[in-house]
Amino acid sequence: MQNFEFYNPTRVLFGKGMIARLDDQLSPEARVLVLYGGSSAERSGTLNEVRAALGNRTFREFGGIEANPTYETLMKAVAMVREEKLDFLLAVGGGSVMDGTKFVAAAVPYEGEPWDILVSKGEAAKKALPLGTVVTLPATGSEMNCLSVISRQSTGDKLLFSNPLVYPRFSVLDPMRTMSLPMKQVINGVVDSFVHVMEQYMTYPVDGMAQDRFSEGLLSSLVEIGPRIIATPDEYDLRSNLMWVATLALNGLIGAGVPHDWTTHMIGHEITAKYHIDHARTLAMVFPALLKVRRAEKRAKLLQYAARVWNLTEGTEDERIDAVIRKTEEFFENLGVPTRLSAYDIGAEGINDLIGQLEDHGMTHLGENGDVTLDVSRQILEAAA
């Protein structure tokens, strides 16, 4: 196992009715900006619950954060916080709203050009406003990590930053808040969570026994949850399990002391930036293709994954690897999520453009060993065609 440092300061309040506990988490003098996305937070009643829990505190609201939060929109929130002298941020929504709120938290006290926070991958931020979250869409794990991904419309960039200053102080996870979501968004959450786990698991063995077994348990849970949640969408326990698995998939625990491979996410970000395809659906296209191209480098973990998650133990090693890659593709496809670029009319010219974007953003040596060059990324995209 590799050396590691694990830190996670986020308090989780999980279960029905937990939004009312906001009152316990905030100072009576807090001046709060509530950030959210579209009208669904209003229609579902979540915003009304939040307003009631905030009580007599001073609070303002900022809506309209996009599914891929943009720098342009978030800078309007930054201006509001500065003008109204607000001192606490509360994200109400899914990963995009939470990511956007983290950027606002870091940008408000920043004295230079806030885009530098993203260009520096978060290192430029030395201060941040405190923030909390009320999760309505389980998918990204942003409620319990210090990561954020932001797009800039004017340049077509989509960049990630990380800084421990933007860990949420607390996160409210009420599975009932997910009941009104369109099924497409719920399934996106299943896929996003699955790939998050795999990018911390599907590398090479380092004898991280707890991490591997924990990851395999999360993957097996998602394999079960996905089809069941389509069949019985109103089952509270399924919603609860998806919400908690999504959080555990990217709160740092399963990734401690093991190598990571975020190639799928980096390529997926470029697809979303250019074609505005849902983030999870870009992952479903890229990840099986990556397994095909990188099967030699990931051979040991592919065989382990085949045996422990899919119970594939018969046949030669190559036959088992072929079978488990097919199983992974079928898992996504059976959830109604395509695994081919052609499903979105992305052809050879589009692949060339995506490789150019990767090069422009310095994504030239990805993977657990830094050996996923632009040529390898092209092979992955071609395998996904």
TrEMBL record:
Q: Which residues form the Fe-containing alcohol dehydrogenase-like C-terminal domain?
A: 187-354
Of the GO CC terms on this record, one is: cytosol
Please state every residue range assigned to the domain named Alcohol dehydrogenase iron-type/glycerol dehydrogenase GldA. 9-175
Q: Which domain of life is it from?
A: Bacteria
Report which reactions are catalysed by this protein. Answer: a primary alcohol + NAD(+) = an aldehyde + NADH + H(+)
Membrane-traversing stretches:
none
GO molecular function list:
alcohol dehydrogenase (NADP+) activity; butanol dehydrogenase (NAD+) activity; metal ion binding; methylglyoxal reductase (NADPH) (acetol producing) activity
Name the coenzymes or cofactors required. Fe cation
What are the record keywords, sorted? Oxidoreductase
InterPro entries documented for this protein: ADH_Fe/GldA, ADH_Fe_C, ADH_Fe_CS, BDH-like
Note the PANTHER family from the entry: ALCOHOL DEHYDROGENASE YQHD
- Tell me which family the UniProt entry assigns to this protein: Belongs to the iron-containing alcohol dehydrogenase family.
What is the protein named? NADH-dependent alcohol dehydrogenase
From which organism does this entry originate?
Answer: Komagataeibacter xylinus
